[in-house]
Amino acid sequence: MDYLYAIRMKPLILTPQEARKIILHAAGLSKRSPFGKGREAVYKLIDHLGFIQLDANYVVERAHHHAIFSRVPDYKPEWLEELEADGRIFEFFTFVAGYMPMYDYRFSLPVKKGFLARRKTLTQAEINLMRKVLDRVEREGPLMVRDFDNDREVASSGWWDWRPSKMALERLYLDGSLMITRKDFQKVYDLPLNLIPDDIDTTMPTPEEFARHVIRRSLQSLGIAYAKEIVWRARYVKDHVIKQELAELVKEGEICQVTVEGLKSPLYMSPRYKSKKIELSGEAYVLSPFDILNVFRHRLKDFFNFDYQIECFVPEPKRKYGYFSLPVLVGDTFVARMDAKADRKQRSLTIHNLHFESVKLTKPMLGRISDAIKAYAAFNHCQQVIVKKTNNKQYSKAIMDGLT
Fold it and tell me: Which of 14, 29, 88, 178 has a Cα-to-Cα distance from 171 of 20 to 30 A?
């Protein structure tokens, strides 16, 4: 028994290239259309990743639609609403807001408990308003913010300065009293009993169950991860005991420790990748800044030698590449980033800055990038592409020639 335990605990040593293949396979980016086509492929993708991050920025198509399009090329945004209406997916939080398979619903309960524990003490007036809002949803059915009277007493002071009824709705959503669906991206608040299918388990998981769920989900989507990246998915839950259960899963053989040349150890991985042969198709992808591949800046540095930061959160004078710069991946290499904006009225995708990394691009690679940009422009309902600035005119010309 001690011998077998020692074998399980002995880290597997991977080259950086091997690690990148595993990470890309786990992210669904090792080849084109890994989940097939059509609406069912969208569900398979969400089921595999366990989470698709939602974001409101609309300078180009929103991040959740973009992430799905990268893996399901025939994707239609209405499919997401249809899956939600069918009760197959739901929206809530892991480390941010996003879509999850409905059968994972019970694992959202510790997060809701965490939000409730963090809530500041409410005034009696706030409590009364929440009861009033909940009562209206119970009596009238699904409601939107606009269905409530404008109860603002003073002018709004900013993005997060919500009026009282909006605050009440969000508090009820975060603690699980209400759930939401989306209509034209606007939130529709409803009772959980109206949205959760009868066969879904709604019991609160134990801290150990929740921790194991987070570990399995994280490694399935990340491929290889540090403990800190796994724990991040449970950042709203205090009693998650993830590191404890991670050690237990390693001992049981369900998870293995790995070492990647040049990086600190230990890292964690599913043992299925020990014997899985992964071949990359060499496809080019224009990725969302909020893609699962890009959410941890240090991972891009560690595994891909790519120093990336989304600069819409950076003051304009300090921006280096642009407001909404999209990473461009070819095979296992980030080769460029493009600061893009979709002009939907003019049906034009403007690339304010097409910045190439210090890598040599071959003619076939440039052709794949052209195809990826053309497909991305069409996804944004744009018929033409305009490049305003680039740091490599030769590469940029070759790509633009490929668009015609």
Answer: 88
